[in-house]
């Protein structure tokens, strides 16, 4: 795959920002808070976690994903975690406040990073344990071998160059570190119908076949620990979200009904799959 020119990279970033940088996000959040009798000064974790995690299965999905990787992190009491494509930072905050991790969140959309920082301050999360910054997931500028765990939740589907994405994950993980993702993959029955929650245009939608990703990760010497197709759970959960105020709807923006019905159509017609997987970066043996 040819590298994008600077101009193409800018168009890609603008398209992602147009899709995820939901109009009037501040107002949507303050309306949601007032629906619960709260504001940014009085915001509670319970209310925030209903809308600040923009992936299938929401807050419960985050807890399930972390619980499924915990045993592979050994005895670490404060694992260093990178959340790639962190959105509003809800996953990062959950990992700090409920699981004792130290987390760095990276997202290409600057509005998301600003809101992640604002919500983190409002929720009084220890600033020594969490930080956010804006960068492409393929080129984070973070230090080599600095994370025990990398999480990708519904983000890889937006990245065209998966070799670069997983190459960056490999560079950033410590020897034996864990890569965990839940994401949208290409199904067996034709192309994706857009818009969906993850993309309004084909220019930012890159679901890939499971087999190709497995081969790619194996060629980078990632060891597969688990691979689960949870498409049926995704469909059930998406149906449960229909008509629910706040939640998934809040971050979907104006075209919510269309995005939701297309998302369900893609999964039910097997155009897309929803997969949870855990891989381990190869252990490097020091040579004398
Ligand atoms: C569906 S949202 C999920 C957000 C977050 N992971 C969560 O679960 O709440 C996908 C996120 O990935 C980010 N993203 C997409 N492509 C990216 C890229 N190439 N580099 C960094 N972030 C990216 C988007 O800006 C968006 O915030």
Describe the structure.
This protein is α/β, with parallel strands linked by helices and 288 residues long. The chain has one domain (7-137, 145-278): Rossmann fold (3-Layer(aba) Sandwich). It is 41% helix and 19% strand. It contains eleven helices and seven strands. The chain has a seven-stranded mixed beta sheet with strand order 3-2-1-4-5-7-6, with helices on both faces. The protein is globular and about 60 Å long. Bound molecules: S-adenosylmethionine. S-adenosylmethionine binds at residues 16, 20, 53-55, 85-87, 90-91, 107-109, 112, 136-137, 153-155, 158-159, 198.
Uncertain stretches of 5 or more adjacent residues: none
Number of strands: 7
- How many helices does DSSP assign? 11
Mean pLDDT: 95
Radius of gyration: 18 Å
Helix and strand run? HHHHEHEHEEHEHEHHHE
**How far apart lie the N and C ends?**
37 Å
The overall number of domains is: 1
Q: What does this entry show, briefly?
A:
The protein has one domain (7-137, 145-278): Rossmann fold (3-Layer(aba) Sandwich), CATH 3.40.50. Helix content is 41%, strand content 19%.
Describe the secondary-structure layout.
Elements: H1 6-20, H2 25-35, H3 45-51, H4 58-70, E1 80-84, H5 90-99, E2 102-107, H6 110-122, E3 130-134, E4 147-153, H7 162-172, E5 173-186, H8 210-219, E6 222-229, H9 231-241, H10 247-250, H11 256-268, E7 272-281
Parallel strand pairs: 1-2, 1-4, 2-3, 4-5
Antiparallel strand pairs: 5-7, 6-7
Helix pairs in contact: 4-5, 9-11
Residues 16, 20, 53-55, 85-87, 90-91, 107-109, 112, 136-137, 153-155, 158-159, 198 line the site of S-adenosylmethionine.
């Amino acid at each position: 795959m040819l590298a994008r020119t600077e101009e193409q990279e800018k168009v890609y970033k603008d398209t992602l920002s147009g899709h995820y940088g939901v109009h009037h996000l501040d107002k949507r959040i303050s309306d949601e808070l007032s629906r619960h009798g709260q504001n940014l000064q009085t915001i509670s974790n319970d209310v925030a976690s209903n809308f600040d995690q923009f992936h299938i299965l929401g807050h419960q999905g985050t807890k399930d994903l972390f619980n499924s990787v915990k045993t592979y992190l050994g005895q670490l009491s404060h694992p260093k975690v990178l959340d790639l494509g962190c959105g509003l930072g809800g996953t990062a905050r959950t990992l700090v406040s409920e699981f004792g991790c130290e987390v760095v969140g990276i997202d290409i959309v600057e509005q998301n990073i600003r809101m992640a920082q604002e919500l983190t301050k409002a929720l009084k999360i220890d600033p020594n344990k969490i930080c956010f910054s804006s960068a492409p997931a393929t080129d984070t500028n973070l230090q080599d071998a600095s994370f025990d765990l990398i999480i990708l939740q519904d983000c890889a589907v937006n990245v065209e160059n998966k070799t670069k994405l997983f190459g960056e994950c490999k560079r950033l993980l410590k020897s034996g570190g864990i890569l965990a993702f839940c994401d949208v993959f290409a199904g067996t029955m034709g192309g994706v119908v857009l818009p969906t929650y993850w993309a309004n245009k084909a220019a930012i939608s890159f679901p890939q076949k499971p087999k190709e990703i497995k081969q790619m990760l194996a060629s980078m010497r990632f060891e597969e620990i688990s691979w689960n197709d949870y498409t049926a759970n995704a469909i059930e959960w998406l149906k449960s979200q229909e008509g629910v105020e706040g939640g998934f709807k809040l971050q979907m923006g104006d075209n919510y009904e269309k995005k939701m019905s297309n998302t369900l159509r893609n999964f039910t017609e097997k155009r897309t799959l929803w997969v949870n997987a855990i891989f381990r970066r190869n252990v490097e043996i020091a040579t004398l």
